[in-house]
Amino acid sequence: MTHAEDPPAVEPMIDVAPLARALERFAADREWGQFHSPKNLVMALTGEVGELTEIFQWLTEAQSRGAGKDPRTAQAVQDELADVLLYLVQLAAVLGVDLDQAVRQKLQKNAQKYPVDKARGSSRKYVDLGP
Questions:
Q1: What phi, psi does 70 have (nearest 5°)?
Q2: CA 72 – CA 77 distance, rounded (Å)
Q3: CB 52 within 8 A of CB 80
Q4: Could you read off the pLDDT of 5-59 as tens digits, one per residue?
Q5: Are 90 and 20 in contact (CB under 8 A)?
Q6: How far apart, in Å, are the Cα atoms of 105 and each of 33, 98, 111?
């Protein structure tokens, strides 16, 4: 039972705790924790984003929209997205960042920077949206 003064329960937008635990076990089993400094994880994450970028590099706009379903690229897209997520979750864990909280805060900041009435249908950066 909740009390009137208790804040309402907020359903997590993302829950990476089970994945973070699995990654920690995976690394511990291999004694890789010693290599998982923030610097190294950021560099590995950047490398994986580069590999994902390479898949899209010479695709047309239309081809890029279908890359996740196209038999020629779908598995590579899936693998690289997974690699990006795995390193991102590891980095957040090492830094003690709550990704759910960080995402909520960033969405709130973006909503303030990009108000619907000014940003709808525009790709302009928030500083160029005008008063």
A1: -65, 125
A2: 10
A3: yes
A4: 666 678 889 999 999 999 999 999 999 999 999 999 999 999 999 999 999 999 9
A5: yes
A6: 29, 11, 10
Strands (E) located in the chain: none
d(CA 98, CA 14): 10
Instruction: Determine the distance from the C-alpha atom of residue 54 to the mean position of all C-alpha atoms in its chain, rounded to a whole number.
Output: 18
The label of the residue with tokens 């997590």 reads: 12
Taking the C-alpha atoms of residue 5 and residue 45, their distance in angstroms, rounded to an integer, is: 42
Place of tokens 């790709």: 123
Alpha helices in 17-73 (DSSP H): 17-29, 38-56, 61-65
Tokens encoding 23: 């990654």
